[in-house]
Fold:
Amino acid sequence: MTESLMKESLGRDRIAALGRSLFQRGLTFGSSGNISVKIADGWLMTPTNVALGDLDPARISKLDAAGQHLSGDAPTKEAMLHLAMYRERPNAAAVVHLHSTHSVAVSALSHIDPEDVLPPITAYYVMRVGRLPLAPYYPPGDPGLAEAVGRLASKHHAVLLANHGPVVAGTSLEAAAGAIEELEETAKLFLLLQGHRAKILSPEQVATLRERFPS
Ligand SMILES: [Zn+2]
Structure:
């Protein structure tokens, strides 16, 4: 269920605070990554060509309910990616997209399962991310990418873009951020375990988690 939508001024402050936190922890770098929040009359979205660690709340882009730029700086060139997630997930209140290192590394591996990229290494991964499909590679800004994400988003709140990075929707900004951070840490664990004889959660253990903590 969607939690009540955020007030615009609070949304601006929360996006800037999350951007700073992600940047300081090395989860985003340069001007990569973008964050959006649904508000009563449209969306707030991080602007194009700006570092998430240095966002001015007043200059964050505002889009109207049709997804058109209304005020603030021009929105991220990946706005279509966010709008595709919202279109397919009516309960989504926020979307976070990163080029976080370990997730991108996993997205470039040749032996991953495109229908479920990461194994259930921990309970929190199963609870916060669940199944993670891989969207095929498209050049930046290509409408094919938003279409591919849209096709997967109705069934999945987290999608990994091949040779690019994860995009995650949540019923709150905290939920979206928590899930994408869990995804990045699991990608890191997955890479650490390559070449080791790891024991992942069994199908029964995963089924128990899905039963006790339905998403
Ligand atoms: Zn991107």
Notes: Residues 22 and 72 are 22 Å apart (CA to CA). The mean pLDDT is 95. The radius of gyration is 17 Å.
